[in-house]
Write a structure and sequence with these properties.
By secondary structure, this protein is α+β, with helices and mostly antiparallel strands. The protein has 2 domains: 177 residues, PurM-like, N-terminal domain (60s Ribosomal Protein L30, Chain: A, 2-Layer Sandwich); 172 residues, PurM-like C-terminal domain (Phosphoribosyl-aminoimidazole Synthetase, Chain A, domain 2), CATH 3.90.650.10. The chain has 10 helices and 13 strands. Helix 2 packs parallel to helix 3. The two termini are 33 Å apart.
Length: 374
C-alpha cells in the first residue's frame, strides 16, 4: 500500500511492500534519505534519523528468501509465490505496546520471537505448514534504530526455525506505542477447522498449560527472576513456541483443532459451541506447567485457574476419535512433546470440570481488549 503523496514527503523509490513516514511532526520538512539508502557510516541512533531507505534496505538484506517457491520477497510492490494444487491458509494478528507487551518487560528479540510464534501458531492450529509472513510495524521516530535492527534480525531468525520466509510488510510512524502486525501464510491439503467435534471424542492438549499466565503475573508483580521456576514461567510468557509439527501429526485424525491463545476453557467453548456440544474435563488430568505451579504457590492462587483461563500458552487442543489418541501420543512423544487426554466431548452443552468426584460448571470467559476503554 502506497503512502499518499500529501502524507509522505520523502522520495519513495522502489521499496514496496515496505513504506514509511517516521516524522511525528508533519509540518516540519522531512530529512531526505542518505544517498543509496541505508547507513554507510554506521547506524544512526533513532528511527527518524535512519529514514525510510535505511530501514527498508536493512530488512531486504536480512530477509532474502530461503524457500524455493518464493520467487520475489522484500523489495518490490508485492511478493511472488508459486502454488500448485494446495490450499492457502492465511492468518493475521496484532501486538500493541501497552496492551500485549511492555518494552520494559521484554527485549526486541523476545518480542520478535513472540510476534512470529503467536501467528505461526494459528497456521499450526489448521494442521498446515507455514511458509511466509509479512510484518507491518508502527514505530515512534525516537525509537533507537538498534532496537529495530535487533527486532528484524530476530523475526527472520525465528521465522526460519519454522521454515518461514519474511516476504514484506509496511512501516509507518507512530505518535506513541509500537504496533506490530503479522500475517502468516501456510499450505495444506486439507485444513482442520475448529468445528467438527463429535460426542464421545477425546479432548487432548499438547505440552503444559498456565506457564505464560504465571510469567505475566511474575512480571506484573516485580518477582525476582533468581528463582528458576520464575525464569521458566517468564520465558513461557515472552517466548511461546508454535506447535507446527504437532499440528501436522494431529491433522490427519483430528475432528477439530485449535490453539490455546485465550485459555483452555474459552478455546473449548469455541471448539464445541457451534455444534451445540459440551465437554467434561478431569481437573487431575489437565497438565499444569510445573513452573506455573511453583509461581502459584508464591502468589497464593490455584494454578489450575491459570491453566484454564490464563491464555497465551499456544499449545494445541484437539478432539480425536478414541482409538486415535494412543497412536498420536506415541508419535508426538518421539518429537519430545507430551499429549494429554483431559476430557471427553458430550452431547450436552457447557463445559464441566470434575474435581475430587465433584462436577461443577466452568465459568467460560476470555480477556477482552475493549474492556480497557471503560
Amino acid at each position: 500500500m502506497r503512502t499518499p503523496p500529501q502524507e509522505f514527503s520523502r522520495a519513495e523509490g522502489k521499496l514496496h511492500p515496505w513504506t514509511t513516514d517516521m516524522d511525528e511532526n508533519r509540518n516540519r520538512p522531512s530529512r531526505a534519505p542518505r544517498a543509496g539508502g541505508g547507513d554507510p557510516h554506521g547506524d544512526p541512533e533513532t528511527v527518524r534519523a535512519w529514514g525510510e531507505s535505511g530501514i527498508v534496505d536493512f530488512i531486504a538484506r536480512v530477509a532474502r528468501p530461503a524457500r524455493p517457491e518464493i520467487e520475489v520477497g522484500v523489495g518490490d510492490d508485492a511478493a511472488v509465490v508459486r502454488a500448485v494444487g494446495r490450499r492457502l491458509v492465511v492468518s493475521a494478528d496484532m501486538l500493541v505496546e501497552g496492551v500485549h507487551f511492555r518494552r520494559d518487560w521484554t527485549t526486541a528479540p523476545a518480542l520478535a520471537a513472540k510476534a512470529v510464534a503467536v501467528n505461526v501458531s494459528d497456521i499450526a492450529a489448521m494442521g498446515a505448514e507455514p511458509f511466509g509472513l509479512l510484518t507491518s510495524v508502527a514505530l515512534p521516530g525516537g525509537l533507537a534504530s538498534a532496537w529495530v535492527r535487533a527486532f528484524y534480525r530476530a523475526v527472520v531468525r525465528v521465522a526460519r526455525r519454522y521454515g518461514v520466509d519474511l516476504l514484506g510488510g509496511d512501516t509507518v510512524g507512530s505518535p506513541g506505542p509500537v504496533v506490530i502486525d503479522v500475517t502468516v501464510l501456510g499450505w495444506t491439503d486439507e485444513p482442520v477447522l475448529r468445528r467438527g467435534a463429535r460426542p464421545g471424542d477425546r479432548l487432548v492438549v499438547t505440552g503444559t498449560l498456565g506457564g505464560a499466565a504465571a510469567g505475566l503475573w511474575a512480571l506484573a508483580n516485580g518477582l525476582a527472576d533468581d528463582d528458576p521456576a520464575v525464569r521458566r514461567a517468564v520465558r513461557r510468557h515472552r517466548r511461546p513456541a508454535a506447535r507446527v509439527a504437532a499440528g501436522r501429526l494431529l491433522a490427519p485424525v483430528a475432528h477439530a483443532l485449535t490453539d490455546i491463545s485465550d485459555g483452555l476453557a474459552w478455546e473449548l467453548k469455541e471448539l464445541l459451541e457451534s455444534g451445540g456440544m459440551g465437554a467434561r474435563l478431569s481437573a487431575e488430568r489437565i497438565p499444569v506447567d510445573p513452573a506455573a505451579a511453583a509461581v502459584a504457590r508464591r502468589a497464593g492462587v490455584d494454578p489450575l485457574r491459570w491453566a484454564l483461563y490464563g491464555g497465551e500458552d499456544y499449545e494445541l487442543v484437539a478432539a480425536l476419535p478414541p482409538d486415535a489418541v494412543d497412536g498420536v501420543a506415541r508419535e508426538l512423544a518421539r518429537t519430545g512433546l507430551e499429549l494429554t487426554e483431559v476430557g471427553v466431548v458430550t452431547a450436552d452443552p457447557g463445559v464441566r470440570l470434575v474435581r475430587s468426584a465433584e462436577e461443577v460448571p466452568v465459568d467460560v470467559h476470555r480477556f477482552d481488549h475493549f474492556d480497557m476503554e471503560r
